[in-house]
Amino acid sequence: MQNVIIFGASGHGSVVLDCLEKEGKYNVIGFVDSYKKKDSKINGYQVLGSEFDLPYLINRFNIVGGIVAIGDNWIRKLIVDKILKIVPNFNFVNTVHPKSILGKDVLLGCGNVFMPGAIVNANSIIHDFCIINTNSSLGHDGIMESYSSLAPSVCCGGNLYLGQFSAISLGVDIINGIEIGKHSIVGAGSLVVESFGDNILAYGSPAKIIRKRIIGEPYLTTSKKQSLPSLRNLQEIRSNLSI
Predict the structure, then answer these.
(1) Binding site members for substrate
(2) For 119-128, what is the mean pLDDT?
(3) Annotated binding site
(4) Which of 97, 127, 140, 183 is catalytic?
(5) Three-state secondary structure string covering the chain
(6) Average pLDDT over the chain, rounded to an integer
(7) Domain boundaries in the chain?
(8) Of 69, 183, 202, 225, which has the maximum CB count within 10 A?
(9) What pLDDT band is residue 235 in, cutting at 50, 70 and 90?
(10) What does R_g of the chain's alpha carbons equal in angstroms?
(11) Strand partners of residue 120
């Protein structure tokens, strides 16, 4: 099997690891994470270093590609950009858990994650670096633009259009034919019966626009023990992109 690495050693990274192991298509060498101690162990795998170690790691372990395991859509984009500055032709792979289902004529980009129980129905298009999380479903002819995501137990009717960097949160139901713009968030447990534009936060049943969003504004709730980058870390990532 070909050797790959995972960028991000948080809880989301552990789930991505499980997908890769169960899929059995690639051999995972370890994690790359700037916020974890080098040589520490996560789920039995070594933290190999940071993105700056990539050229060395690729040569040492004959790595053919990897996947960015960052749950926040905007931060995932920043990490991808950082990787491509260091290794311009880096190969980002998809992982499809064996208990997920991809329908007829589904088109996939790169760097996508399909978690256990995920369903993508016929004629849908998933662009790059998307997350289709546990037990979520995308109806027929759906389109997910790059860096968009469906949280666990999301149920989407057919012909959904989900814009870049937009996220549908836990347990949201979306009726057929809805369009949601870029950088928008639909809050957990909502029922979406109308389309929404760019840069908005909406929630409720039915979902209503609550306010405008700032691009890159965090939207995932985390415990104090979890290592998801904070706003301060986000600024650090941005500054590192100038290398």
Answers:
(1) 10-12, 71
(2) 98
(3) 10-12, 71
(4) 140
(5) CEEEEEECCCHHHHHHHHHHHHHCCEEEEEEECCCCCCCCEECCEEECCCHHHHHHHHHHHCEEEEEECCCCHHHHHHHHHHHHHHCCCCCECCEECCCCEECCCCEECCCCEECCCCEECCCCEECCCCEECCCCEECCCCEECCCCEECCCCEECCCCEECCCCEECCCCEECCCCEECCCCEECCCCEECCCECCCEEEEECCEEEEEECCCCCCCCCCCCCCCCCCHHHHHHHHHHCCC
(6) 92
(7) 2-86, 96-212
(8) 69
(9) low
(10) 17
(11) 102, 138
Q: What is the pLDDT of residue 237?
A: 47
How is residue 229 written in tokens? Answer: 């980058």
**2-86: CATH number:** 3.40.50.20
For the whole model, what pTM was predicted? 0.89
Percent of the chain at pLDDT > 90 equals 88
* Strand 200-204, strand 207-212: pairing: antiparallel
One-letter identity of residue 136: S
For 96-212, CATH gives: 2.160.10.10
To the query of whether residue 97 is one of the catalytic residues in this protein, the response is: no
The whole-angstrom separation of Cα 158 and Cα 17 is: 30
- For residue range 172-230, what is the model confidence (pLDDT) as tens digits? 999 999 999 999 999 999 999 999 999 999 999 999 999 999 999 999 875 444 344 44
* d(C-alpha 176, C-alpha 97), whole Å: 26
